[in-house]
Each structure stands twice: as structure tokens, then as C-alpha cells.
Amino acid sequence: MNRFWKCLICVVVLSCHSFASEPVPALEQAIEAYNAGFAATDRDQRLRSFRRAELLFDRVVNERELKNASLYVNLGNAALGAQRIGPAIVAFQRALAIDPSNRQARQNLEHARTLLPDWVPRPETSSSGLGSLAASLLGTTTRWSADDYFRIAALAFLVTAITLALALRIDRKGLRNLAGLLAVVWIASLCVAIWKTQQPAPNVAVVTLPDTIARAADSINSPSRLPEPLPSGTEVQVMEDRRDWLRVRLFDGRDAWLPASSVTRLVG
């Protein structure tokens, strides 16, 4: 058993403990089915067990209206075990929407993307050099949420106030300079937090129907826009909504029309 699948087991076990104080029958059944999938030697039985675990995790999330990143990670892991890449990517993305710093969700999302054909365009996961540094400082990456920046701003304000009080009391230039620097951090963090709250949520969707034909127009009779159908798990940006059809943009810049029933939208 490789390292990745061992990590998936650990996530399910940890999630079970987090709900130990309030047992949920469907959750217990989901974990039981998930473990049965790992134990199964027959491929068909393994897929059935993981698929059952996926359905049960999905029931727990929807019936109890839980916003729990670990549960979404477990849901994604079960879908991945059932070889359903599209629903797995949706679940990992929703886990990251709840907790952008969730390392397991991010690692499993990246792993799921590697299972797609090489020609499928993927979102850029990171930048490098000065661009990455600038993006981090300005808060344009998705790893830190607005709440994270509000917490940083609150902590910076507290430390600034304490440092400034000490500087005024003992009249040290170094402390005054440090208080000024901390004040800059406080103001910058607060500005980024406010900016993030004003940004519209990205209108991202994931193809969840296998072999979806991307068309040149919003008609079933329209010619195919791409040489090959889009596999389940392809991530797209929704540019226009015409009820039964969506105009989407792939992450290489190409536009196409997809049946609305073939994708799952992450927001909206």
C-alpha cells in the first residue's frame, strides 16, 4: 500500500474521532464501507464499497448541513477510491473553501488532478519567484482566507499597542520604530482582509459526467469544440449561464458550451 492511500486512511480515522462525542449512524456506516473498500481484494467489490462510502459521507454532509472540511476530504477520498475523479475534485475543492489551509485536501486535490489525461487544462497551483512572494503578501492566493487576515490584523494591533505603550513608558527609539513597523503590518493585514471580503467568489465548476462533449454553441446539434470529450474532473470557469447550457472557459483560455447537467458548480 503506497503512502497516498495510507494518508487517506488516516484522514478517515481522524474524522471519526472528531465526531466521537455525537455518534452519527450514517458516518459510522460510511467509515465501515470505506474500510471494507481497502480490505476488498476483488476490484468490483472494492469499487462498490467505496461508492457506498461516498454516498454515505454525502448523506452526512447534506442531511446534517455540516460545514466540516475533514468530512469533505473523506467524501473526496471515497469518491477517488470509487474511481470517480470529478466528484472527488468537487469534494476537495469544497473542503478548501471551508479551510483553505487544509493540507490533506490540497494534496489529495493535486493527486486527483494527476489522474486526468495530460491534455486536460488545469488551474495553476502556484507561481514562483517574486510573483509568488507578491501574491502571498497581497493575499491573492487562496491559502489564507479573509478570516485569517482579520486574525493577523487583530494580533498585530494588540502587539502594536503593547509595544507603543512600552515605548512611551521607557522612551526607547528602537521600540518606537518596532511599533511603527507593527502598525504597518496591522494596517496592511486589515486592508487585505477587507479587500478579500469584497471579492466575488470565483464561478468555478467541475465536469462530473464522463466523456462530456464540449460544443461550439448551446445546442446538442452544434459541432464539437474540442478534439476529445472532456473527462470527469475537468475544472472550468463558468462565463455564461443559459439554464440548460453553460458557456465555460477552460484553463488554457478556450471557450466551449457544456450541458448544465454535466457539471457541478462549486458556488452559486
Can you put this structure into words, describing what you see?
It is a single chain. This protein has helices spanning 3-18, 25-39, 43-63, 69-81, 85-98, 103-114, 129-138, 146-170, 173-198; strands at residues 204-207, 235-242, 245-249, 255-259, 263-265. The protein has 268 residues and is an alpha+beta fold. It folds into three domains: 3-114, Tetratricopeptide repeat domain (Serine Threonine Protein Phosphatase 5, Tetratricopeptide repeat); 129-198; 204-265, SH3 type barrels. A five-stranded antiparallel beta sheet has the order 4-3-2-1-5. The two termini are 39 Å apart. The model is unreliable at 16-22 and 126-142 (pLDDT under 50). TPR repeats lie at residues 69-102. Residues 1-20 form the signal peptide.
Low-confidence stretches: 16-22, 126-142
User: What's the order of the H and E elements?
Assistant: HHHHHHHHHEEEEE
**Major sheet: order of its strands?**
4-3-2-1-5
Strand content: 5-15%
Count of alpha/pi helices: 9
Shape: extended
CATH top level label of the largest domain? Mainly Alpha
| Mean pLDDT value | 83
Count of domains = 3
Helix content: 55-70%
Going by CATH, the homologous superfamily of the largest domain would be Tetratricopeptide repeat domain
Give the beta-strand count: 5
Distance between the termini: 39 Å
Structural class per helix/strand content? alpha+beta
Backbone CA Rg? 23 Å
How many strands, which pairing sense, and closed or not: the largest β-sheet?
A: 5 strands, antiparallel
Topology-level CATH name of the largest domain: Serine Threonine Protein Phosphatase 5, Tetratricopeptide repeat
* CATH architecture descriptor text of the largest domain: Alpha Horseshoe
